[in-house]
Amino acid sequence: MLNKGRMPTHRPFRRATLVILLLSSLLHAEPGSDKADSAEALFISGKRHYLGEGVPKDPAKALVLIREAAEEGLPEAQGWYGFLLASGSGTSRDETAGLLWIRKAAAAGVPSAQFNLGQMLMKGSGAERDPAAAADWITRAAEGGQVEAQAKLAEHFYFGTEAVEKDVAEALPWAKRAAEAGHAWSQNLYGNLLEWGETVPVDRALAMQWYRKAAEQGHAKAQSSLGRLYASGLVGKRDVVEAYYWLWESSGHGEASALIFLKDMVHGMTEEERKEALKRIGVEAEGK
C-alpha cells in the first residue's frame, strides 16, 4: 500500500518500463494470436480474392485463405470452403470432402451452408440421396432468412416433391418472403398466385406489380404474364403498346407463350398502334 504522505520517486521509471514492455509485446506478438479475429481476417481476405474485390481475382489463393479460416473454426468459412471444394473452384472437385465442411457449417447454424447441404443431399452429391433430410435442411435455411432456400421451399410446396407434399397454401408465404427480398422467380410465382386466386382472393392489380418486378429483372414468364395483362384490359385501361413491348421481350428470351399472345394481339392492332409498338421496342416503323 502506498504511503499517501510521500510521492514515489520511481513512478516515471515504472511508467516508461511499462510502455517499453507493451511495445515489445506488440512487436513480438504471434500473428493470429486472437484466433477469432485471425480467422475472420483470413476469411474476408479470401472472399476478396475469390470475388476480385479490390484485388485480382484468384480462386486458388482464395481457397488457401478460406481453408485456413475454416481450420481455425470459423463456421462461415467452413461453409465457403466446403462450397469451393464441392464446386472445384481453385482446386480439383471433391464433393465428398466439400460436403463434410458444409455439414459442419450447417450444424453451426449458417443458413447458406444449410441450403447448400440440402441441395447436395437432394441431388446425392457427395453422399447418398436423402430427400427428407434435404427438405429439413432447406427449411432450416429458409427459416434463417436464406432467400434461395425460401424460394426453393416455395417451389417444393407449390409443385410437391417426394419429400414435401404439395400444399399451395404453404407455398404462398415462402414465395412472398423471397419475392419481397427481390427473388425474380418468387416474384413471378407470387404474382401468379395472386392473379389466379390460389389460396388468396384474386388481386390482378397487385399481381401485375409483382410481375413487373420480376419482368424488370428479365424473368421471361413474368414478362409474358405482364404483357398478357396489359393486352387484356383487366387491370386499368388496355395498353397494347406496353403489352407488345413485354411480350416482345419475353419471346426474345424463348418464352413460347409470349410468342402466341403476340401473334394473336398483332392482328387486332391499328396501324398507329403498330408504329408506337415498334418505337417502344426501339425499331423504326418505316420499311417494317
Task: Tell me the layout of helices and strands.
Elements: H1 11-27, H2 35-51, H3 59-71, H4 75-87, H5 95-107, H6 111-123, H7 131-143, H8 147-159, H9 168-180, H10 184-196, H11 204-215, H12 220-232, H13 240-252, H14 256-266, H15 271-280
Helix pairs in contact: 2-3, 3-4, 4-5, 5-6, 6-7, 7-8, 8-9, 9-10, 10-11, 11-12, 12-13, 12-14, 13-14, 13-15
What is the CATH architecture descriptor of one domain?
Alpha Horseshoe
**Based on CA inertia axes, which overall geometry fits?**
elongated
Oligomer: single chain
**Low-confidence regions:** 1-13, 15-33
CA gyration radius, whole angstroms: 29 Å
How much β-strand is present in the residues? under 5%
Q: Cα distance, first to last residue?
A: 100 Å
Q: Which structural class is indicated by helix and strand composition?
A: mainly alpha
What is the N-to-C order of secondary-structure elements (H for helix, E for strand)?
HHHHHHHHHHHHHHH
CATH fourth-tier homologous superfamily of one domain: Tetratricopeptide repeat domain
